[in-house]
Amino acid sequence: MAILEVNNLKKNFGNLEVLKGIDFSLEKGESLAMIGASGSGKTTLLRCLNFLERPTSGQIRVNEKVVFDGADARTLSEAEIRKNRLHFGLVFQSFNLFPQYTVLKNCTLAKELMAKERPDFKTNKKQILDEIKTEGEAVLASVGLQEKMDYYPHQLSGGQQQRVAIARALMLQPDILCFDEPTSALDPELTGEVLKVIRGLADKKTTMVIVTHEMQFARDVSDKVLFLDKGMVAEYGSPEQVFEHPKEERTRQFLERYFEQ
Amino acid sequence: MLGANPIESLTSGFLLNLELFAVTLLLALPLGLIITFCSMSRFKPLKWITKVFIWVIRGTPLMLQLFVVLYAPGLLFGIPMSSRFTAAVIAFVINYAAYFSEIYRGGIESISVGQYEAGKVLGMTRSQIFFKVVLLQVVKRIVPPMSNEIITLTKDTALARVIGIGEIIMSAERFTKMGLIWPLFSTALYFLVFVGVLSLLFGWVEKKMDYFRV
Amino acid sequence: MKKFIAMALFSAMCVTSLAGCGSSNGSGGSSAEGGTQAAAESDWEDVSAKGEMTIGMTLFAPMNYYDENNNFVGFDTELAQAVGEKLGIDINFVEINWDSKEIELNSKNIDCIWNGMCSTAERQETMTLSAPYLYNTQAMVMKADREDEIMSSVDGLTVTAEKGSTGEGKLQGTIADDDTVEVSAMEYFANSNYVASDSMAKALMEVKAGTADVALVDSVAAYGMVGPDTDYSDMVINVDNNFGLQEYVIGFRKGSDLEQHVSDAIDELYADGTVAQLAEKYNLSDLLIENDAQAATEAPEAATGDTAAEAATAAAE
After folding, report:
1. Considering the domain C44-134+247-306 in this protein, what is its CATH number?
2. pTM for the model
3. Which of C11, C17, C202 is opposite residue B71, by nearest beta carbon?
4. Which residues from chain C sit within 8 angstroms of residue B163, using beta carbons?
5. Above 90 in pLDDT, residue B45?
6. Which chain regions cross the lipid bilayer (chain B) (predicted)?
7. ipTM of model
8. Would the CB atoms of B122 and A109 count as touching at under 8 Å?
9. Residue ranges of domains in chain B
């Protein structure tokens, strides 16, 4: 059963068609690597999944539930969007940690705010907050940063900051965790620790969509590879199919350019 | 020939400066935020009107605005302004709110889109994002320019004398009219001491927010 | 839309006040524009209904000032209070910015200007003036140790006066010399440099600081500022040159009926001797203008230029 289904998703910016009808689906526990040249639309696609961009038309379903339908997109209230986007987590290229909060608070803030809406928050306040804190500590431990939890973001290296960002996204237990070029803003020597964390998540069968330029990593870690070209899915299949036996000439050219470097 | 003790007179004059300073701050700080929201509104006419308003207020001398507030009601409608101090407060609040609003706007716009988006993907509401994520970063950014503006306000309060507010400079000028010069120059001490206290306060606030970088 | 109207209105106000302000500062300009709607209704009715008359003034001795016991006194102060008693109304003194006196009047923030104000042709145009009650002359104020040098020749020296004052008008010829004049200020200072000051007090400060050599100010005001107990104890007032006499008057909104009521009260105070007593008290007896109908319209005969100048000197002692 597919956890994520995207049907004929289109996105225009004014007259510019960035996504020209994207179709793909993803099974639970699979990780999908999205590759393609800059401007091919992969970041836009990711942002559409996370409701940071509103698709022009098409449908997105998570666990067979429609979370977006271009046909009646206008009926989606802000509250509904808020609820639906929680199916997804997003790790940004530039981390976007909250600078005024500690590493731990970065992870727990959103969950604490949500807990305040719970009817039993007032009566069980201390217990609820303690639980969230424990969760935060655990999730930080899972990315190897438990001893940094009282630090502020600017005191950490780029790689550590990105690991905090991953932990922050994991806190809300999204059905699908998305990464937008998670290592592009990092110095080369810091990419390893972040990729290691993502690899660990793949091993634990976390459902992920990863936009990346790291071809070697995409080949090693992902279960599916989606090659996006000019706003369309040019190639979709297992890493072996896409990397070793691409059906399309443009895929071959793209990969050649990459592996030449 | 001299009336009250100059020191007493200057001190009571300066209390008026302080009162005008405090009331102006108290009202202009929140009003500035409202103006900021209007100037950043997606409703175009409101945004446009606010921009014109800011242009007019920043584009005309505060002295003239004091005159307008005090005299316009009487000149245009025959109903004179009842209190000079109220007139001064209105003019100062409007003027400073306009300046504050631009500082706020600069601060808000300097926060990267990524901060808003990070809040969104974590399921926060717009107001949660503003108050829990953006606000403190804005505050940190605007403390230095606001300190400047507030220190300027301290000294600008002396301008209220043009509409007959008996603030410290006006008090001092009473003495120059009676042949005593030194009170006028001693007023500097009052301002220096007060601005000194303010500077320490702002320094402390900046230090308080040193723990994070934006 | 409401906001837009408010904005347009506000802009209009800015222009209005700009016009009003400019003319009150200018030495020769007219400030008639602001006065169009003045005194459309009866000022007297307003004042008597409120039971209060608001007088705009600036503090200066001997007209309106605080004495050593911090009591508000002065010739104008006490005369106005006596008028208030006669009329059965309270007198409310408001300290104003002298530059804005016309706009204060026209915006009804004050009911009259009563503060040793000289009668000028311009003010006769823009205000309704009372009968004159005191003479004033223009005095030269300078450092005592340079008096001989300066009085022998002012050529090449720097003279200062309050902007918009009678002194400036005389120096620049915007106030024409009348037949009370023995020495034309414009001719006397023809070879001097002129600097405008913010106020008469600032004019004296210019002299004290040496940025000007001599100040030309109202004699009555000068005697209030220069004296042994002041920072100007090293300065002297010289009234040897009679640059002409001015008359102190009370200014009302153009066409105001309040003037008649105040003048009637002053007539009574002249008649019962109160005015003379006050003049005596403040050492102004020799400058007092007798209360006869002619004094208001004709050049004074009771006090010639000579005697008034002597009187001004006497008042200093």
Report:
1. 3.40.190.10
2. 0.79
3. C17
4. 97, 100
5. yes
6. 20-40, 52-72, 84-101, 180-205
7. 0.92
8. yes
9. 6-208
